[in-house]
Design a protein that fits this description.
Flagellar_basal_body_rod_CS, 2 helices, cilium, elongated, three-stranded antiparallel sheet, alpha+beta
């Protein structure tokens, strides 16, 4: 019976839906996290009678066809790249992006990764690094004698040094954006890498056309809305239960049919 298979695909789809929702909720406090949203598509149909087919020798046509669907599939779990709320941290090496753009990070294997998590620290050599020790690209080195560090909205990094009245220029942040940022691949640790779907990175200076600006001593929160996720969880649970009832009903119908043949 087709109903069993169709309902089974519905249960599998809602199970994956719950997995996505649970991951969003788990990352509610993850800096720079972008929530995922599953998308579904119906499966192939068996056309028993096609719409528009002839119904008589006088060329009358069938106004509506007879097609039986075979269920549902998950087509994608796309990232929602909307801006998250910026929260003050009072740490001078924390930086948030307001608007478009990703920080560039050099991985240990030489690859370039991209992130919205601007919770940076200094290495033992004074280099600006991520929480995992990956270098920020382009590199910025802060002298150990610096008394304070200022990061402007346009990404200029300056330090105040003893005995100097004017701040010293240390480096310049750059951001990367993508034609299709939803096509980026998440590799964990708040990092993304480019794919054929995302297109190559377009690099630029914060505050210029197409790029957001920076805000020092702030971090971007996850763009997860707890109320929305709980509502989606309840809806997914109800959909799963309804599909399970279809399986039970179809099983009872098959049992009834089997008993009729036995008597």
């Amino acid at each position: 019976m087709r109903a069993l298979y169709a309902a089974a695909t519905g249960m599998a789809a809602q199970e994956l839906n719950v997995q996505v929702i649970s991951n969003n909720i788990a990352n509610l406090r993850t800096t720079g996290y972008k929530r995922q949203q599953p998308h579904f598509q119906d499966l192939l149909y068996q056309n028993l009678r096609r719409a528009g087919s002839s119904t008589s020798e006088q060329n009358t046509q069938l106004p509506a066809g007879l097609a039986v669907g075979s269920g549902v599939k998950t087509s994608s779990t796309a990232r929602v790249m909307a801006q998250g709320t910026l929260t003050s941290t009072e740490k001078e090496y924390d930086v948030a992006v307001r608007g478009e753009g990703f920080f560039r990070v050099t991985m240990p294997d030489g690859r370039t990764a991209y992130t919205r998590d601007g919770s940076f620290d200094l290495s033992a050599q004074g280099q600006l690094v991520t929480r995992d020790g990956y270098l920020v690209d382009p590199g910025v080195t802060v002298p150990n004698t610096a008394t304070s560090v200022q990061i402007s909205a346009t990404g200029a990094v300056q330090a105040t040094l003893p005995g100097q009245t004017a701040p010293q220029q240390l480096g310049q942040f750059q951001l990367a954006r993508f034609v299709n940022k939803v096509g980026l691949e998440s590799i964990g640790d708040n990092l993304f890498v480019e794919t054929a779907a995302s297109g190559p990175a377009i690099n630029g200076v914060p505050g210029t056309e197409g790029f957001g600006n920076l805000q020092q001593s702030y971090l971007e929160e996850a763009n997860v809305n707890a109320v929305t996720e709980i509502s989606s969880l309840i809806a997914a649970q109800r959909a799963y239960e309804m599909n399970s009832k279809v399986v039970t009903a179809a099983d009872q119908m098959l049992s009834t049919t089997s008993q009729m043949f036995r008597s």
